[in-house]
Amino acid sequence: MDRFLFLTLDGLSRGAVYAAFALALVLIWRAGRIVNFAQGAMAVAAAYVAYSVTAATGSYWLGFGAALLAGLLLGAVVDLAVMRLVDHRSPLNPVIVALGLVLLIQAVLGMVYGNEYLPAQAPFSRTAMTVGGTAVLSPYDLFVFATVGVVVAALVWIFTRTAIGLRMRAAAFAPEVSRLLGVNVGGMLTLGWALASGVGALAGMLVIPTELGVHPHAMDLVFVTAFTAAVIGGLDSPPGAVVGGLGVGLLLSYVSGYAGGDLIPLAVLALLLTVLLLRPGGLFAAVTARRV
Amino acid sequence: MSATRASAPPARAAAVESTRPGWTVPTLLRHLVVAAGVALLVLAASYQLDSFRNFQLATVAAYLCATAGLTVLTGLCGQLSLGHGALMATGAYALALTQNAFADRGLTAGGWLIVSLMVAVLATVVVGAVVGVAAARLRGPYLAGLTLAVAVVVPALTVTFDGVFNGEQGLGVPMAPAPERLGVYFPHERWQLWIAAAATLLCLVLLANLVRSRYGRSFRAVRDDEVAARLAGIHVARTQVIAFVVSAASAGLGGALLAVLAQSVSPGAFGLTLSLFLLMAVVIGGLGRLAGAVWGAFLLVVLPDLTHSLTNLFTLSPAAAQRLEGNLPLAIFGSTLIVVMIAAPGGVQGLLSRLARALRARWPVGRS
To answer: How far apart, in whole angstroms, are the C-alpha atoms of residue B247 and residue B363?
Structure first.
């Protein structure tokens, strides 16, 4: 029972990160009907910025801030310099371009930092505290929960309570009408990319210390997992992404706790396959007629 | 989809093709003649080139199987697959396991390699059918995500089940030397080139015929408009599964040939990067054209070689040189892909065709 409790809490902590990363994917999907396959590579790039800044200044928090800033900037640059120029009539094109970005970003990171794991420090201890003889959460897990909670709350506030959030939703929902009403549709799209990329960078910063360290490919499996979470949530629904992320985190935690950590990749693939075959629209998507 | 609608032949595309006037060479005959010509060229080249170039050419042949398969799938049937690296891994591991099983039983004659290649193709067909059935129900980003998951996860399985696949170390591939009839000093690389070229030419002739057949037309119809294809009596899901399986079989053969060339298989060679490389090669070569697959396969082998000589021009510390060498091809591929997608979605072969058409318009030669 103790073990079950521990695995549950650990799974929720993992899941919170997947939820944040899935949220980043959902943001871009809602803004521009693109699944950003370069999200993982962009998050790793931000994590490398954090690594450099932390190494130069000795402060984790400066690095953390730099990573968020780098994430925001990178998102805007990717949208303005690349995605804006792509012909979006075929849905294959943005996907292929995003994959080109993956190769490019990973290659540049490999050239600058080398293709080995660099140590990533965590700002808080990762050993679990014990309550009444039962190992529960580590301070780092609490930090993860708090950070993801703040991000989700901030996004909800931006999109539902601010004028800019309203404009962003309008620009995504009806670009032509919004443009007539004076909304800077292109700017809103860029802002959406920046926000999503910033959230992705944050998720990367949270997940990398719990894995082997910073590496150009560090986010490959995380991306696939978060994509699974986003698909479970319906790809279109931010609450769905959060629930999907937590669910996937729990499941993977149980799999690694009871069956062995080696099975995690297989579990992700099996889960994605199952969800796509049974409910391709996700568990939370509103019923819509499929356009063929 | 009912069986009656599926059984109606898609006839309208045939009308387009028969508009060319005069006597046309039967497709199969033409492809066989071209293949025989290429075989002679490769044979001559294998005696002219040194061992290293022979090996490189053999590697091109192995990649060509995979890129041609991917061209059929992505270019003709409109389905994106990021998982072809994993399918190549399936073929490579199946070949290694079969060759090892034969070797354990003392069956070391060269002919058993053919059986192993067939087993590799069959194994990939099975895996391809599983993924393909799922893929036929998916569109756009969902399909890309699923195949991406396959590309990331399958190489990791070799570590999960390291009892069979021997983890990161991988497996050796025992191979019989070239037959003694060819002489004692017959270079091994030339023999490898012959094997790879023979298998690849067979694969390409089959694919080229498929592309020109009823199935090929169905593929294109499905790619261009699913609803219209369905109205024309094409079973869309079945067509997509067939395309995926054919494409997987080619990729499996390519992977098996790579294993034969390297005489070993390890998960590191079949990571996500390989899958992206294949896609890249196909896109840069030109989607939807088998000739584009040839360009792509050449690029996959030549570009790392070029960057190697490029980095040798500069004096760098060994560590920096190693970093640059490993990553420069990736960077070039990535940026080329982005530029090609934005500027010339038809790829190299598309540009060449456009050029040829422009020239023909200016000087109409012998085409009445």
So the answer is: 38
pLDDT of residue B355: 81
How sure is the predictor about B9, in pLDDT bands with cuts at 50, 70 and 90?
Answer: very low
Domain presence at residue A286: no
CA closest to A37 among chain B residues: B145
Contact B327 A111 (CB under 8 A): yes
Q: What is the DSSP letter of A258?
A: I
Going by DSSP bridges, is the β-strand pair A130-131/B171-172 parallel, antiparallel, or unpaired? unpaired
Q: Is A103 in contact with B280 (Cβ distance < 8 A)?
A: yes
- pLDDT value at residue B309: 81
Intervals of chain A under pLDDT 70:
1, 280, 282-292
CB B87 within 8 A of CB B127: yes
- Which one-letter amino acid corresponds to residue B284? I
Side chain identity, residue B274: L
Residues 6+ apart with CB under 8 A from B213: none
Residues A30, A285: Cα–Cα separation, whole Å: 13
> Contacts of residue A96 in chain B, CB cutoff 8 Å?
80, 279, 283, 337, 341
Choose, out of B142, B236, B278, B314, the residue to mutate when testing the contact with A (most A CBs < 10 Å).
Answer: B142
Q: Does residue A67 lie in a domain region?
A: yes
Asked which of A43-47, A247-251, B15-19, B301-305 is least confident by mean pLDDT, the reply is: B15-19
Closest chain B C-alpha to A32 CA, distance in angstroms: 13
Does residue A31 sit within a domain? yes
- Whether A247 and A16 have beta carbons less than 8 Å apart is answered as no
Q: Coil, strand, or helix at residue A58?
A: coil
Q: How many CB pairs under 8 A join A and B?
A: 148
Residue B145 and residue A95 in contact, taking contact as beta carbons nearer than 8 Å: no
As a whole number of angstroms, the longest Cα–Cα distance in chain B is: 69
| pLDDT score recorded for residue A108 | 92
Q: Which pLDDT band holds residue B5 (cuts at 50, 70, 90)?
A: very low
pLDDT in tens, B41-56: 988 888 888 888 888 8
Domain hosting residue A130, numbered range: 2-218
Which amino acid is it at A259? A
Mean pLDDT confidence for B4-22 = 45
pTM of the model: 0.83
The Cα-based distances of B99 to A217, B117, B193, B266 in angstroms read 32, 9, 19, 15
3-state secondary structure of A184: coil
- Among candidate residues B334, B292, B343, the one with its CA nearest the CA of residue A87: B343
Q: What's the Cα-to-Cα distance from B246 to each of A203, A263, B73, B289, rounded to whole Å?
A: 39, 30, 8, 16
What value does the mean pLDDT of chain B take?
Answer: 83
Total number of domains constituting chain A:
1
Q: Parallel, antiparallel, or unpaired: how do β-strands B171-172 and A134-135 relate?
A: unpaired
Q: What is the mean pLDDT of residues B182-210?
A: 87
Could you tell me the residue ranges of all domains in chain B? 26-270
